[in-house]
Amino acid sequence: MTRYVPHGPLGCGGAPLGNLFAPVSDANAAATLDAAWESGARTFDTAPFYGFGLSEHRFGDALRGRPRDEFTLSTKVGRLLDPDPAPERRRFNFVDALPFRPCFDYSGDGARRSLEDSRPRLGMARIDVALIHEASEDTHGPAWRERFDATIQGAAPALERARAEGSIRAYGLGVNRVEPCLMALERADPDLFLLAGRYTLLDHTALDALFPACAERGVRVIVGGPYNSGLLAGGTTFDYEAAPPDLAAKARRIAAHCAEHGVDLKAAALQFCSAHPVVATVIPGSRTPEEMRQNAAMMAAPIPAALWDALRRDGLIPDAAPTP
């Protein structure tokens, strides 16, 4: 079977434009997505959870007039949105989101309804990729395997049927952990994974088992969180929390090597992710046009081979990790 491959190498992640952590105006969201297109981004990933429909509305408004076969549009299933007539201003770290409440549903019926609800929010008849959202330990804790079992018995076969019928082109998982991806390869037939934060300059978890398994099955990976939520972009957070001292120290060592070779840390972070052959695209999140243009510039910036050699000699990246 020939599997669908998202457009690459640079995409645009949708959580910030769902007002993650801080509000973004409609005008600024539209300008950011226009800048993404103008900068060459052609994979656009969103989810019902991002702003409880807000990100999907904004992505649809920005993309609806673009040539439909020239970009990949992915969204998520696994949460349905119910009306919330009196929402708090900040919920699940989204600020001034739409008046809906996300409820987990990993069933087959839930997956089908989620896609049916997403299409009118996007204003598009076609969704290229459906990703089962956060059926993993970091979201569900010790009960995550029960949620995952429900996914394999419900959402996964429903999406495989949708793929066979042609209503989506591909499906997989959208997660922050490697374990559910490996389990999905054993128990289902996914086309790709959106994996956030587990293949970066700081975290190489996906390299040993997952990426070889993906290569064997022809499964591609969309890398999210290439900056590990900020630590690889000059910030102090890793996975949206204060970075542990050892990782902060490692990031400083990487940054020092980059400075010595005249390379922006963000350029090294993005290009390291995209160099692996199973990676189809990298989708940093942007909340302003300037951030999006900077990401595109970083993806194209020249990096001398001597930088990668120095990082390997210092034990900061594995010898087996491909580099540009």
Question: What's the gist of this structure?
Answer:
This protein has 324 residues and is α/β, with parallel strands linked by helices. It has helices spanning 26-38, 54-63, 108-122, 137-140, 144-153, 155-165, 179-187, 205-208, 210-217, 245-260, 265-274, 289-300, 305-313; strands spanning 11-13, 43-45, 72-77, 79-83, 90-91, 94-95, 100-104, 129-133, 170-175, 192-196, 220-224, 237-238, 241-242, 279-283.
Q: Rg to the nearest angstrom?
A: 19 Å
Name the average pLDDT. Answer: 97
In total, the number of strands is: 14
Shape: globular
Uncertain segments are none
Order of H and E elements: EHEHEEEEEHEHHHEHEHHEEEHHEHH
* Distance between the amino and carboxyl termini: 29 Å
Taken as a percent bin, the fraction of beta residues is: 15-25%
Structural class: alpha/beta
Largest sheet: 8 strands, parallel
How many H/I helices? 13
Spatial order of strands in the largest sheet: 1-2-3-8-9-10-11-14
Percent range for helical residues? 40-55%
Tell me what you see in this structure.
An eight-stranded parallel sheet has the order 1-2-3-8-9-10-11-14. Strands 4-7 form a two-stranded antiparallel sheet. A two-stranded antiparallel sheet has the order 5-6. Helix content is 40%, strand content 17%. The radius of gyration is 19 Å and the shape is globular. With 324 residues, it is α/β, with parallel strands linked by helices.
